[in-house]
Design goal:
The complex is a heterodimer. By secondary structure, chain A is mainly α. Chain A has helices at 2-29, 34-39, 45-55, 61-73, 87-122, 127-141, 144-158, 173-202, 205-213, 217-245, 249-254, 260-269, 273-301. Chain B has an 8-stranded mixed sheet with strand order 6-7-8-3-9-10-12-11, sandwiched between helices. Chain B has a 4-stranded antiparallel sheet with strand order 2-1-4-5, covered by helices on one side. In chain B, helix 3 crosses helix 4. Classes of the chains: A mainly alpha, B alpha/beta.
């Protein structure tokens, strides 16, 4: 297990290097001259040239890249073009909010998705199952801005339970709607995944055996069936969380939450390359890390997956 | 009159065909269609037939895993279909099962010891240290070392897995074990070991077996009595020697004739068996076997023959007798 973990960590190194390179190249070839944007429309060519030199944009691309690369290794991602603050600092300011969003949305998605999926599978072809499937389909199909609109309409405008947008005094109440909006799609996805996984597992002989042993229904469904259906759910939950850690651009924008996603959007509009790079890099690193973590948790769900050890038979 | 431990009367199970019933006429698969037999304490009844004849469905009905469409299953005088869920759950101390595929019938996430021990705790037979001890005894009983309790199913061979499945079934001290093709997925040499083990355990512990199989050799080896099923009905039911030495029903004879013999000098009666098993959704009228029977009479397609005694308890459902 330890050896496997080390192997996986080493294997992640080229991935990360590749990511750094791709991020740099992509941000360098996008159209738009940051110097011109910073200087403003009325600036004369000398000013623009001066800004270009200040930012090091006049140097050869590969030199800029090695600088960038060295910077990444020392957690120095440069300074924002807009306000000259260190990029790491700017991102770290925004990260807690996004992390809160991502973790709670994933938790919500897993809890509702798994329970709905289990109920759907156990009560297959009942009204409950049909209703659950329609809801799941809706959740997957509906775009998040629409879901956002609907939950705001319901909870803020009609019911007046929750204040609308922003973080207000920073209380948790302001997170409720964004979390619901953000969690809807993964919840729907996990519902479907759990349902189909459970249906497959419930057909297995060892579930029949579990019934025949005289186990109570709960023990059969949760103890034997669910645990065997959880692997794909773990994978999807991990990926969803990683995606959201990089910032939920639409939802953060919609609810005016100053998270990483919104930071990225602002940076893109302002051609603030260091911040864009920082944000994309964060997303990629979180992805690599979460995927690794998910892989390492597989043996907890399925003892047949055992890393590094010797295998008897088969 | 002394009642048998297990008494099955006119058992029927129809399954709706998928996709029927909505806009289309409702079609039913008559998996089990009027099956009756008895099973005594410590006895082994072999239930044999082609795949799809409903023999596994009979097993699942007895275990209460599915409810019959019609008919009664009396186990120790109590009708299983009439029980509520809790009663069925408690009854499962007395009836256990062993499945065909030991790869599929053991939860891959559980260690062998937990698989064997789980039911002990559920039925409040033993827990903690006692449970561990009992699990080790059970493993020993089926010829496995106590160390195997820490293994996962994927770390065991097919024969070892089936031994675990048997130990698991024996854990709660059942009176009856329904064995659904318990050796079909094993190598022949391992089959013999497992069957010998099952017979030995029966002599020591006295449980009855309902042994479901399509393998006539295995059935002949282990059964006291044999029931031959064809398309949801029992066509012949008799002591093992009666069925194998003096088979009556043309279907039984055809089946036995199809078993290859080891010596080329032994000439066997050839009974051709042509065609496919008819569809269980629309079984042929009259005797279900008449479409493939070489001896078919006009009456066979009209009247369904009942099981009648040919003498000495040899039951056969055929108009020829």
């Amino acid at each position: 297990m330890a050896i496997y973990t080390i192997k996986r960590l080493l294997a992640a190194v080229p991935v990360v290097i590749g990511v750094i390179a791709v991020v740099f190249i992509l941000t360098s070839i996008v159209p738009g001259d940051p110097a011109r944007l910073i200087a403003g429309k009325t600036a004369d060519p000398e000013t623009i040239q001066r800004i270009r030199e200040e930012l090091g944009l006049n140097r050869p691309l590969w030199e800029q890249f090695t600088d960038f690369f060295k910077g990444v290794l020392t957690f120095d991602l440069g300074r924002s073009y807009r306000n000259n603050r260190p990029v790491t600092q700017v991102i770290m300011e925004r990260l807690p909010l996004t992390a809160k969003l991502a973790v709670s949305s994933t938790a919500l998605a897993v809890v509702t998705g798994v329970s709905l999926g289990v109920v759907s599978a156990v009560k297959k072809d009942s009204m409950l199952d049909h209703g659950g499937r329609v809801l799941a389909l809706l959740g997957i199909s509906a775009p998040s801005f629409w879901i956002g609109l609907m939950v705001v309409l319901l909870f803020c405008v009609k019911l007046r339970w929750i204040p609308g947008t922003g973080t207000g005094d920073g209380g948790w109440l302001y997170l409720v709607l964004p979390v619901i909006t953000l969690g809807m799609r993964p919840a729907a996805f996990i519902t479907r995944l759990t349902r189909s996984g459970m249906l497959e597992v419930l057909e297995q002989d060892y579930i029949q055996t579990a019934w025949a042993k005289g186990l109570p229904g709960r023990a059969v469904v949760l103890g034997h069936a669910l645990k065997n259906a959880m692997i794909p759910v773990a994978t999807v939950a991990g990926t969803c969380m990683a995606e959201m850690m990089g910032g939920a651009i639409v939802v953060e924008q919609f609810f005016s939450l100053p998270g990483v996603g919104r930071l990225g959007l602002e940076a893109i509009l302002a051609r603030d390359f260091p911040v864009i790079r920082g944000q994309v890099l964060l997303l990629a690193l979180v992805f690599v890390a979460v995927n690794l973590l998910v892989d390492l948790t597989y043996p907890l769900f399925d003892p047949r997956i055992k890393y590094g050890g010797k295998r008897r038979h088969e | 009159m002394q009642r048998s431990m297990l008494e099955i009367k006119n058992l029927k199970k129809y399954f709706p065909v998928k996709g029927s019933g909505f806009l289309r006429p409702r079609a039913l698969v008559k998996a089990v269609d009027g099956v009756s037999f008895t099973l005594d304490k410590g006895e082994t009844l072999g239930l044999v037939g082609e795949s799809g004849c409903g023999k596994s469905t009979v097993g699942r009905l007895i275990l209460g895993l599915i409810r019959p469409t019609e008919g009664e299953i009396y186990f120790q005088g109590r009708n299983i279909p009439g029980m509520d869920r809790e009663e069925i759950r408690r009854m499962r101390r007395d009836i256990q099962l062993v499945f065909q595929d030991p790869y599929g019938s053991l939860d891959p996430r559980m260690k062998a010891g937990d698989i064997v021990g789980e039911a002990l705790e559920i039925h409040r037979i033993a827990k903690g240290k006692d449970k561990e001890k009992r699990v080790e005894e059970l493993l020993e009983l089926v010829g496995l070392k106590p160390q195997y309790k820490a293994r996962y199913p994927h770390q065991l061979s097919g024969g070892q897995r089936q031994r675990i499945a048997i130990a698991r079934a024996l854990a709660v001290g059942p009176r009856l074990i329904v064995c659904d093709e318990p050796v079909s997925s094993l190598d022949v040499s391992v089959q013999a070991q497992v069957i010998d083990l099952m017979q030995e355990l029966q002599q020591r512990l006295g449980q009855a077996y309902l042994f479901i199989s399509h393998d006539l050799g295995v059935i002949r080896h282990i059964s006291d009595r044999v029931a031959v099923m064809y398309l949801g009905r029992i066509v012949e039911l008799a002591r093992r020697d009666q069925v194998f030495d003096r088979p009556a029903h043309p279907y039984t004879r055809a089946m036995l004739a199809a078993v290859p013999v080891l010596s080329p000098h032994l000439k066997k009666e050839r009974v051709p068996l042509e065609g496919e098993v008819p569809n269980a959704i629309n079984p042929p009228g009259g005797c279900r076997f008449h479409t493939r029977c070489v001896h078919a009479l006009p009456v066979c397609s009209e009247v369904e023959p009942a099981l009648s005694d040919l003498g000495g308890g040899h039951l056969c459902a055929c108009h020829l007798f």
